[in-house]
Design brief:
The protein has 391 residues and is α/β, with parallel strands linked by helices. The protein folds into two domains: 43 residues; 321 residues, Alkaline Phosphatase, subunit A, CATH 3.40.720.10. The protein contains 15 helices and ten strands. Helix 4 packs across helix 5 and helix 10 runs antiparallel to helix 11.
Length: 391
């Protein structure tokens, strides 16, 4: 038996040495993996996020101008549904938009936002549950608000709606330089200032806005009809067209050009609010909700964009309370309050977010992050994305 014991001992020592060598090789191999990962990261395209790859390949950004958080989260305000809101038929308005509870009122006013976005995505800005959302530019009106949302930071040089071409590069301009997105970025808006806000001259992004440039020149029969309607309708406001023209021109253009990054700015909510017409303010918001439903239905009907589209909806500023609901600006208390709603394949269905304070400046990075790209890496002044992604 002794020779057998010696054989077992020898085999044991050989096996131990073999295992040690294998363990050493595995350790050395594992030690190289971080270096490989770092090298791969260094070779990644400029702006690529270090997070897991986004499933979203398309993003739609919608801003309905000056729409208050009060109506978004609470529905119609009874104090404004009569003479205080210049309502012509209070009974009809109550029948249309008044319900017993805030949840029911907001659902009847914005059925898509609360029936789809709130159940499949996230909504931020309800300060009653610790999720106050604010602008950071301090001025609380449109050009500074849109610039903050599109660049990720406030710029005090932009202190007027008549400001010239935006000196700052927007996230849209940067996205348009990415190889896979070049020529796939477009913007539509009712207000005539967006060519300056996005700086279409420098960025090369097609922007269709205002009375002189609202309809995209697609050459279609629909575009011809829209141009005739634009030229012959009564102009309610000198610098803002009606939402319907912008919406249907956008649909005409996107059916042909198929942009991957699309911005749409609806302006009637702000215009009717400035006019003090609460009835028309509510109906315009209700119509925007229908537009959102149509945009989402179209995205889900197309196999190219189905389950690959992120929808981001927000506003450029808030408004005052009570009699000041018609106004906004630096001196209007409450006009700094905004909100955001986000839905897409990378956004967990968390509904109304609690204890999540946010800022308007986070919107720009969120637009890029929806596509798996890192805007703050390209623009260090930009705020980080909204905390909405689950990847």
């Amino acid at each position: 038996m002794e020779p057998v014991r010696i054989g077992y001992a020898l085999l044991s020592r050989i096996a131990m040495r073999f295992c040690l060598r294998v363990a050493t090789l595995v350790t050395l191999l594992l030690a190289t993996l971080p270096a490989v990962s770092t090298a791969q990261s260094a070779r990644a395209p400029s702006g690529t996020s270090n997070s897991a790859a986004a499933r979203s390949t398309h993003v739609i950004v919608v801003i309905t101008d000056g729409f208050r958080w009060q109506e978004l989260f609470g529905g119609a305000d009874s104090t404004l549904m009569g003479k205080a809101g210049k309502v012509s038929d209070s009974t009809a308005l109550h029948r249309e938009f008044w319900r017993a509870t805030p949840d029911a009122r907001r659902s009847v006013l914005l059925p898509f936002v609360w029936g789809t976005m709130a159940t499949q995505g996230q909504i931020l800005g309800d300060s009653t549950v610790g999720s106050r959302a604010v602008v950071t530019n301090g001025l609380k009106f449109s050009f500074p608000g849109y610039s903050e949302a599109f660049t990720g930071f406030p710029d005090r040089r932009i202190d007027s709606n008549e400001h010239g071409n935006n000196e700052n590069r927007t996230v849209f301009e940067w996205l348009n330089t990415q190889s896979t997105l070049k020529g796939k970025v477009a913007a539509f808006a009712t207000w005539h200032a967006f060519r300056r806000i996005i700086n279409s001259t420098r960025s090369g992004i097609p922007v269709f806005d205002g009375w002189d440039n609202a309809v995209a020149p697609t050459g279609t029969a629909r575009a011809a009809v829209l141009r005739d309607m634009l030229a012959t309708q009564t102009r309610m406001w000198p610098t803002n067209t009606v939402d319907a023209i912008t919406h249907y021109s956008m649909l005409d253009y996107t059916a042909l050009k198929k942009p991957r990054v699309l911005f749409i700015g609806y302006g009637e909510t702000d215009e009717w609010a400035h006019d003090g017409r609460y009835e028309l303010y509510l109906r315009s918001a209700h119509q925007v909700d229908k537009y959102l439903a149509e945009l989402w239905a179209n995205a889900q009907a197309n196999p190219v964009t189905r389950n690959k589209t992120t929808l981001i909806v927000t506003t450029d500023h808030g408004r005052g309370r009570g009699a000041a609901w018609t106004d906004h600006g630096e001196k209007v208390d409450g006009a700094e309050r905004v909100w955001m709603a986000v839905m897409g394949p990378d956004v967990p269905a968390l509904g109304v977010r609690r204890d999540t304070p946010t800022t308007q400046s986070q919107v720009a990075a969120t637009i890029a992050a929806a596509l798996g790209l890192d805007w703050p890496n390209a623009e260090p002044k930009a705020a980080k994305p909204l905390p909405v992604f689950g990847r």
